[in-house]
Amino acid sequence: MENLPPCPKCNSQYTYPTGQLMACPECFHEWSPEELAAEEAAEGQVLDANGNPLQDGDTVIVIKDLPVKGAPKPVVKAGTKVKNIRLVDGEHDISCKIDGFGAMGLKSEFVRKG
Protein backbone atom coordinates (compact mmCIF):
# COMPACT_ATOMS: atom_id res chain seq x y z
CA MET A 1 0.00 0.00 0.00
CA GLU A 2 1.16 3.52 -0.81
CA ASN A 3 2.36 5.77 2.04
CA LEU A 4 0.17 8.88 1.64
CA PRO A 5 0.63 12.12 3.64
CA PRO A 6 -1.96 13.02 6.30
CA CYS A 7 -4.46 15.82 5.72
CA PRO A 8 -2.82 19.22 6.47
CA LYS A 9 -6.14 20.56 7.79
CA CYS A 10 -7.35 17.81 10.16
CA ASN A 11 -4.39 15.35 10.21
CA SER A 12 -6.58 12.47 9.06
CA GLN A 13 -4.64 9.43 7.90
CA TYR A 14 -7.35 8.39 5.42
CA THR A 15 -6.29 10.60 2.51
CA TYR A 16 -6.47 9.50 -1.12
CA PRO A 17 -5.30 10.83 -4.50
CA THR A 18 -7.79 12.37 -6.93
CA GLY A 19 -5.67 12.86 -10.04
CA GLN A 20 -3.19 15.65 -9.29
CA LEU A 21 -4.75 16.58 -5.93
CA MET A 22 -5.05 14.79 -2.60
CA ALA A 23 -8.37 14.64 -0.75
CA CYS A 24 -9.53 13.98 2.79
CA PRO A 25 -12.81 12.07 3.29
CA GLU A 26 -13.24 13.38 6.85
CA CYS A 27 -13.05 17.16 6.32
CA PHE A 28 -13.37 17.22 2.48
CA HIS A 29 -10.18 19.29 2.15
CA GLU A 30 -8.33 19.06 -1.20
CA TRP A 31 -4.70 20.14 -1.71
CA SER A 32 -1.77 19.83 -4.06
CA PRO A 33 1.21 18.03 -2.50
CA GLU A 34 3.64 20.11 -4.62
CA GLU A 35 2.15 23.43 -3.47
CA LEU A 36 2.12 22.27 0.15
CA ALA A 37 5.82 21.31 -0.06
CA ALA A 38 6.68 24.70 -1.61
CA GLU A 39 4.78 26.57 1.15
CA GLU A 40 6.54 24.58 3.88
CA ALA A 41 9.95 25.31 2.32
CA ALA A 42 9.15 29.05 2.14
CA GLU A 43 8.07 29.26 5.80
CA GLY A 44 11.65 29.06 7.05
CA GLN A 45 12.84 31.94 4.84
CA VAL A 46 13.21 35.53 5.97
CA LEU A 47 11.87 37.93 3.33
CA ASP A 48 12.51 41.65 2.90
CA ALA A 49 9.77 44.25 2.33
CA ASN A 50 9.65 43.36 -1.38
CA GLY A 51 9.42 39.60 -0.81
CA ASN A 52 13.05 38.82 -1.71
CA PRO A 53 14.70 36.11 0.43
CA LEU A 54 17.48 37.32 2.74
CA GLN A 55 20.60 35.38 3.73
CA ASP A 56 23.41 35.83 6.24
CA GLY A 57 25.98 38.31 4.93
CA ASP A 58 23.57 40.25 2.70
CA THR A 59 23.54 44.04 2.47
CA VAL A 60 20.17 45.69 3.08
CA ILE A 61 18.81 49.23 2.97
CA VAL A 62 16.40 50.64 5.58
CA ILE A 63 13.17 51.77 3.85
CA LYS A 64 11.71 54.06 6.53
CA ASP A 65 12.92 56.12 9.48
CA LEU A 66 13.16 53.85 12.53
CA PRO A 67 13.14 55.32 16.06
CA VAL A 68 15.89 54.02 18.38
CA LYS A 69 15.49 54.31 22.14
CA GLY A 70 18.58 55.30 24.11
CA ALA A 71 20.78 55.93 21.07
CA PRO A 72 22.87 59.06 20.44
CA LYS A 73 20.78 59.76 17.33
CA PRO A 74 16.98 59.50 17.64
CA VAL A 75 16.33 57.60 14.38
CA VAL A 76 17.93 55.35 11.79
CA LYS A 77 17.20 57.25 8.57
CA ALA A 78 15.57 55.71 5.53
CA GLY A 79 18.23 54.83 2.96
CA THR A 80 20.79 53.73 5.56
CA LYS A 81 22.85 50.84 4.15
CA VAL A 82 23.46 47.93 6.53
CA LYS A 83 26.21 45.49 5.54
CA ASN A 84 26.82 41.90 6.57
CA ILE A 85 23.52 41.10 8.30
CA ARG A 86 22.93 37.96 10.34
CA LEU A 87 19.52 36.24 10.46
CA VAL A 88 18.23 35.23 13.91
CA ASP A 89 15.00 33.84 15.35
CA GLY A 90 12.56 36.22 16.98
CA GLU A 91 10.49 39.28 16.19
CA HIS A 92 13.58 41.31 15.19
CA ASP A 93 14.92 38.73 12.75
CA ILE A 94 18.02 40.63 11.57
CA SER A 95 21.05 41.20 13.79
CA CYS A 96 23.47 43.85 12.52
CA LYS A 97 25.82 46.72 13.31
CA ILE A 98 24.93 50.19 12.08
CA ASP A 99 27.56 52.96 11.99
CA GLY A 100 26.75 55.54 14.67
CA PHE A 101 24.35 53.18 16.50
CA GLY A 102 26.25 49.93 17.11
CA ALA A 103 24.72 46.46 17.34
CA MET A 104 20.95 46.23 17.00
CA GLY A 105 18.08 44.11 15.76
CA LEU A 106 15.90 45.02 12.80
CA LYS A 107 12.64 43.64 11.47
CA SER A 108 12.93 42.35 7.92
CA GLU A 109 9.72 44.15 6.92
CA PHE A 110 11.55 47.50 7.19
CA VAL A 111 14.47 46.69 4.88
CA ARG A 112 15.01 45.86 1.23
CA LYS A 113 17.83 43.91 -0.30
CA GLY A 114 20.59 46.26 -1.44
* Termini separation: 51 Å
Query: Percent range for helical residues?
Result: under 10%
How many beta-strand segments?
13
> What can be said about the biggest beta sheet?
3 strands, antiparallel
Q: H/E order of the elements?
A: EEEHEEEEEEEEEE
SSE-based structural type: mainly beta
Low-confidence stretches: none
Mean pLDDT: 89
Strand content: 25-35%
Widest sheet, order of strands: 1-2-3
The helix count comes to 1
What Rg do the Cα atoms give? Answer: 21 Å
Shape field: elongated
Q: Could you explain how this protein is built, in words?
A:
There is one protein chain. The chain is mainly beta and 114 residues long. It is 10% helix and 32% strand. The protein is built from one helix and 13 strands, in the order βββαββββββββββ. The strands form five sheets. It has a three-stranded antiparallel β-sheet with strand order 1-2-3. The chain has a three-stranded antiparallel β-sheet with strand order 9-6-13, with no helix packed on it. The protein is elongated and about 60 Å long. The protein starts with 15 loop residues before the first strand and ends with a strand. The mean pLDDT is 89.
